[in-house]
Write a structure and sequence with these properties.
Layout: H1 2-18, H2 26-33, E1 35-40, E2 49-50, E3 56-57, H3 59-71, E4 74-79, H4 82-85, H5 87-90, E5 96-97, H6 105-108, E6 111-113, E7 118-127, E8 143-146, H7 151-158, E9 162-165, H8 169-178, E10 184-187, H9 188-197, E11 203-215, E12 218-220, H10 224-239, H11 242-251
Parallel strand pairs: 1-4, 1-5, 8-9
Antiparallel strand pairs: 2-3, 6-12, 7-10, 7-11
Length: 257
């Protein structure tokens, strides 16, 4: 009798070992919880910040809310500092990071990204009444206001410009408006945000570089169903005009490509 019980017990153990464990996929777990947990800074306007009422708002916030809506759940934001934001995925503090995370090979080696949802390009900015500079090549011999160690400063130098050192975007734009610099090469998203806040500022884009840096929704590897669902949601957001509405609200322009 003991021998029979031992054989039965051994058989059950073997069955348990051989039978696969069906854990919930990332998407199933999110739907079961009823919430998509999103890691974000909350201090990076106009992408993710707090308005005068204290509410979390911004371009990335609304994109996250729309993705969650199309997954059939609510968006639950978890705020944290940039330095530890991506690491929060490893600690399972949230399901995704939506915080202008640039897509690059180093990050792609460890995490999965959605299709790009926003693009940033180098733009050549001049005074609104400037008709001499219409291309990057026209910077040769001109003064360009730049942070000296930035990629934009390098591009200005390669275009033959004389650099006028600044502390950042705001100072660069101010020098152009005041006529103390002929131009500045800067980030398209920063310029659109500036013009949205100050539409009467006497500056314009004279040229735009073709190459773009893209940001995507970052998630842990090994969640193909969740990745596909997020990509489908982004397609839907763009197809029904929701993306265009959000883009115009924060930038006054299409920032998808």
């Amino acid at each position: 009798m003991k021998l029979v019980k031992s054989i039965i017990a051994l058989g059950l153990l073997q069955f348990a070992v051989m039978t696969p464990t069906f854990a919930q996929s990332g998407l199933d777990a999110i739907k079961s919880a009823g919430a998509l947990r999103i890691g974000t800074e909350g201090t990076y306007a106009p992408f993710t910040f707090h308005d005068d009422t204290g509410a979390l708002v911004g371009f990335d916030v609304e994109i996250g809310q729309e993705i969650a809506k199309r997954l059939g759940v609510k968006a639950e934001f978890v705020e944290g500092k940039w330095d530890g934001l991506i690491a929060g995925i490893d600690a399972k503090r949230y399901d995704a990071v939506i915080n202008q995370v640039g897509i690059n090979p180093e990050r792609q080696a460890k995490y999965d990204f959605s299709e790009p949802y926003i693009a940033s390009k180098a733009v050549l900015v001049v005074r609104g009444d400037n008709t001499d500079i219409t291309s990057f090549a026209d910077l040769a011999g001109k003064k360009s206001a730049q942070t000296l160690t930035s990629n934009f400063g390098k591009l200005a130098t390669e275009s033959g410009a004389e650099l006028v050192g600044t502390d950042g975007f705001d100072q660069s734009i101010a020098l152009v408006i005041d006529g103390r610099a002929d131009a500045t090469i800067n980030d398209s998203l920063s310029f659109y945000d500036f013009k949205k806040q100050k539409p009467d500022a006497n500056v314009k884009i004279a040229a735009t570089q073709d190459a773009a840096d893209h940001s995507g929704v970052l998630i842990a590897k090994g969640n193909p169903e969740l990745l596909a669902a997020i990509n489908d949601a982004l397609v839907s957001i763009k197809a029904d005009g929701t993306y265009a509405t959000i883009s115009q609200k924060y930038f006054g322009a299409d920032v998808s490509k």
